[in-house]
Amino acid sequence: MPQVKVAVVGAGVIGFSSAVCIAESLPNAAVTIIAEKFSPDTTSDGAAGIFFAAEFHEIPVERQRRWFKDSFNHLLQIAHSAQAPHAGVMLSSGCQIFKQEPAVKRPFWADLVIGQGDMSPSELQRFPEHGFGQVFTTLKCECSRYLPWLQHRFIKAGGVVEQRHVSSLNELCGFDLIVNCSGLGSKALADDSAVFPVRGQVLKVSAPWIQHFIRDSDGKTYIYPGIESVTVGGTRQEHDWRLDIDEQDTTGILERCKKLEPSLENAVVLSKWVGLRPSRKCPRVERGVMKTKGKNIPVVHNYGHGGWGVTLAWGCAVDTLGLVTQSLRDIRPVAKL
Ligand SMILES: Cc1cc2nc3c(=O)[nH]c(=O)nc-3n(C[C@H](O)[C@H](O)[C@H](O)COP(=O)(O)OP(=O)(O)OC[C@H]3O[C@@H](n4cnc5c(N)ncnc54)[C@H](O)[C@@H]3O)c2cc1C
Ligand SMILES: O=C(O)CCC(=O)C(=O)O
């Protein structure tokens, strides 16, 4: 019989990863995921889902390496299994190109992906405006498949799913512990003014001959072949809440991407999409407490992953599980978890 009631707010890649980790690891926790939007309507659903990350300067790099490594190794196992197409996970090889050689040539995750190395001058000839590049094989996780797959796993582990808007975490005072994975919603739910949107527009095109990804290091031009289509992007517009398609952005994306991959001239545009990255100076993965109706309810926050939520989701979920376990030990020291 479950002894502790846990609410996870948010059904994007951060919420579902956390909920699955908790439900599968703590058999005595009854876990309910509560969210306004589920797949296919979350921000996570539209992400290209490439495993890549920028460094957050306020978080120890070792912690970020652990997030990346835990995520990468977990999804690599899925990529090498028969579950891969169902989960939307695949290996993806390609290059990141730079106008000039960067000051930091090796990102913190360089040795955690596969076969990272510098491009040779002859490989770079394809990109006359770029003077430096790196090739590597990483993962791509398409959340429009991954989220339903995680939901299935969550329900199999005894999890319960509830669709509704939460106006305040106080509404959840019937639970013993709350895990807040509400992304941009944390601006209101956690009263966190540091959370802001970074608007991103991408297109999905049909171009099955494109097999390798290309990313300009400015983060605004990328071509990511996926399971059924190629994602081309993008934009990074800070504090921009517009969710409608901007046709000027569409034109700019196609022009920039065709400069890197001229054969896109023959691609057919299948769809256009805008998402708001739940951004913050750095993600918040930490314990807090909510005082309500004379009770202290532990809250574990896991939000604010900006443009890297798919990449960091499993690693942050493992950290979240650790924080949940510590919090439950504080409130139920003798209970079996
Ligand atoms: C164009 C674009 C491309 C991207 N590409 C990549 C990529 O290639 N690789 C990568 O790693 N990342 C990428 N990202 C970033 C990634 O999409 C995000 O970091 C990730 O989706 C964040 O996940 P999340 O679960 O925190 O948020 P979301 O997916 O936004 O989920 C938030 C959840 O919280 C719920 N919620 C919020 N407020 C409330 C409330 N008050 N009541 C109830 N429910 C609430 C929502 O309904 C939703 O279920 C991209 C983003 C964009 C926009
Ligand atoms: O930046 C990238 O290369 C991948 C896409 C992404 O993470 C984003 O647009 O947020």
TrEMBL record:
GO terms, biological process: D-amino acid catabolic process; L-aspartate catabolic process
A single Gene Ontology CC term: peroxisomal matrix
Localization (cell): Peroxisome matrix
InterPro entries per the UniProt record, alphabetical: D-amino_acid_oxidase_CS, DAO, FAD-dep_OxRdtase
Swiss-Prot/TrEMBL keywords: FAD, Flavoprotein, Oxidoreductase, Peroxisome
Reaction(s) this enzyme catalyzes, per UniProt: D-aspartate + O2 + H2O = oxaloacetate + H2O2 + NH4(+); D-glutamate + O2 + H2O = 2-oxoglutarate + H2O2 + NH4(+)
Main localization, broad class: other
Protein residues bound to D-dopa: Y222, R277, G307
GO molecular function: D-aspartate oxidase activity; FAD binding
Cofactor list: FAD
Boundaries of every FAD dependent oxidoreductase domain copy: 5-317
Superkingdom, taxonomy of origin: Eukaryota
Binding-site residues, FAD: T43, S44, V166, G306, G307, W308, G309, V310, T311
SUPFAM superfamilies tied to this protein: FAD-linked reductases, C-terminal domain, Nucleotide-binding domain
Enzyme class: oxidoreductase
Membrane spanning residue stretches: none
Similarity comment text for this entry: Belongs to the DAMOX/DASOX family.
Protein function: Selectively catalyzes the oxidative deamination of acidic amino acids. Suppresses the level of D-aspartate in the brain, an amino acid that can act as an agonist for glutamate receptors. Protects the organism from the toxicity of D-amino acids. May also function in the intestine.
PANTHER family in UniProt: D-AMINO ACID OXIDASE (PTHR11530), D-ASPARTATE OXIDASE (PTHR11530:SF11)
Protein name: D-aspartate oxidase
